[in-house]
Amino acid sequence: MIHKELEFRGIKMEHLGMYFEELGAKQKRDSFPYVFEAEGWRGEILEEKEIAFTQSFKVNSIKIRFYAVSEKLLNETIKHYRYKTTRIGG
């Protein structure tokens, strides 16, 4: 399987897990690394840490690794996942 690692900031870990499930994956592990599996691909929530930009401005940072049986499926899965993580300011 091929893989790619991404980092997401400012999104709750529970939501990131929910997005895997919305794409058809089932949660297989409930501690780090959280594992979500679907047909032909898998996602893992590897770690969560806090990043401080200033003394009062802090956000979470979560690393996620995607695996898939083909590069096409990997790119397609990441595209759909990133769509779910898009935040529009206003």
Task: Spell out the blueprint of helices and strands.
Blueprint: E1 2-9, H1 13-22, E2 26-29, E3 34-38, E4 41-52, E5 58-68, H2 71-85
Antiparallel strand pairs: 1-5, 2-3, 3-4, 4-5
Task: List its traits.
90 residues; Ribosomal Protein S8, Chain: A, domain 1; 5-stranded antiparallel beta sheet; globular
Overview of this structure, please?
- The protein is α+β, with helices and mostly antiparallel strands.
- It has one domain (2-85): 2-Layer Sandwich (Ribosomal Protein S8, Chain: A, domain 1).
- The protein is 28% helix and 44% strand.
- The chain has 2 helices and 5 strands; from the N terminus they run βαββββα.
- It has helices at 13-22, 71-85; strands at residues 2-9, 26-29, 34-38, 41-52, 58-68.
- A 5-stranded antiparallel β-sheet has the order 1-5-4-3-2, covered by helices on one side.
- The radius of gyration is 14 Å and the shape is globular.
- The N and C termini lie far apart (39 Å).
- The mean pLDDT is 96.
